[in-house]
Design goal:
The chain is mostly helical. It has 11 helices and no strands. It has one domain. Helix 1 packs parallel to helix 8, helix 1 runs parallel beside helix 9 and helix 4 packs antiparallel against helix 10. The protein is elongated and about 80 Å long.
């Protein structure tokens, strides 16, 4: 099936990310003495602040790690669930035109979100491939029963290091095996296991060769315009709720693409963060992610994930060491090898324990987006028929 990518042209980055023109900012203030529905929206925005503030203050060791990305997805999944509950409470108001338009635009954005979820799922498969190469290197240079490292071990390690380095190159032509298929977030079934190629049908459109994560994110960012006070009043506060949820959706996807290998990934897009009481953590998160990118000077990297950076550093040092050592190994080289292998072994352990739960988190986000969209479209359909 065709990609959901819109033909709208890519808008290049022209101004600082944190710049916000005065005429673009409109206070998302709910009417004083508003109903319990308005209180729900205020509570939702408060929860958004709390959840993402916790993420923004993560220490340097945790920030952008696999465990941090898992917490990011868990926070987002909770926001989607809260949004769905409030939206269901407001379904009696959906017969009014503003509500139909506002929710309809949000559900259009979620289709693009599903594409990015699928592309990120392929990125996790790429990391698994790197993990296998990494385990080969670790086994080659850490022989069992304290055996001495010989020429055969070094040859095997060199090949593993070369395969790993080649696999981690950022393939901008989209020609890798991961861009030719799209793994589903559906559970495996008996029919699925016997189906050709072992792949099940995706709940979202397949990602084409020309699909671009950065362009998809820019399209999402381009459609986010803070609602004016009269729009909030006309929609009984729904415009404020949907804008907050839409921004959280876009920002989480941006952070996900920044961290995980993804087809034509890029973080230099024009994200305008609204100056609202709930948005301060996003300013902090954006600044930290951008600083991390500049600090590492990794424009051609596969991702800003902390463990990816550790692999790149470890592989570079270990490659230099393996190429320079002579047999028999000196005590100094043995000690240095042990240290490097210990570092890479710890990364392998993180991947073994954290990648599968991370994929479950991503699958849960995917399903919550789908469920919310289906229920919302059903509400809109009922309101139209009423």
């Amino acid at each position: 099936m065709p990609s959901s990518e819109s033909p709208i042209p890519f808008v290049s980055f022209r101004r600082p990310v944190l710049t916000l023109r005065g005429d673009q900012v409109h206070a998302l203030v709910l009417d004083q003495g508003s109903s319990s529905q308005d209180s729900q929206i205020e509570s939702f925005q408060s929860q958004v602040f709390t959840r993402f503030n916790d993420l923004s203050v993560a220490n340097g060791k945790e920030f952008l790690s696999v465990s941090w990305v898992r917490k990011l997805l868990e926070a987002f999944a909770s926001c989607v669930e809260d949004f769905r509950v409030i939206m269901c409470d407001k379904n009696a108001l959906l017969s009014k035109q503003p509500q139909e338009r506002i929710l309809g635009e949000y559900f259009d954005r979620t289709i693009k979100a599903l594409d990015i979820c699928n592309a990120t799922r392929d990125g996790l498969e790429k990391i698994r491939l790197w993990q296998r190469h990494l385990e080969i290197v670790v086994c080659a240079l850490n022989p069992p029963q304290q055996r001495a490292i010989g020429e055969g071990h070094l040859r095997r390690a060199r090949k593993g290091l070369m395969d790993l380095a080649l696999g981690m190159l950022d393939e901008k032509d989209g020609g890798s095996v991961f861009s030719h298929r799209n793994r589903s977030f559906k559970r495996r079934t008996k029919d699925h296991l016997h189906s050709p190629g072992g792949h099940s049908r995706s709940l979202s459109w397949s990602v084409s060769h020309s699909w671009s994560a950065s362009k998809q994110l820019q399209l999402l960012a381009n459609t986010l315009v803070p609602p004016r006070a009269n729009e909030i009043a006309a929609s009984n506060g729904l415009a404020a709720l949907v804008f907050t949820m839409s921004f959280v959706l876009m920002f989480v996807l941006w952070a996900l693409v920044a961290a995980i290998p993804c087809q034509d990934r890029g973080i230099q897009i024009n994200i305008v963060i609204p100056r609202q009481c709930w948005s301060r953590p996003f300013h902090i998160l954006q600044a930290r992610i951008m600083d991390e990118s500049k600090k590492r000077d990794r424009r051609n990297s596969s991702g800003l994930l902390k463990e990816i950076y550790q692999i790149e550093e470890g592989v570079n040092h270990l490659t230099d060491l393996v190429d320079s050592v002579q047999l028999p190994l000196s005590e100094e080289h043995k000690e240095e090898l042990r240290g490097r292998i210990l570092e890479l072994s710890s990364i392998c352990e993180v991947f073994k324990t954290e990648l599968e739960p991370l994929e479950r988190n991503l699958r849960e986000v995917f399903r919550k987006i789908v469920t919310c969209r289906i229920e919302g479209l059903e509400f809109l359909g009922k309101a139209t028929q009423a």
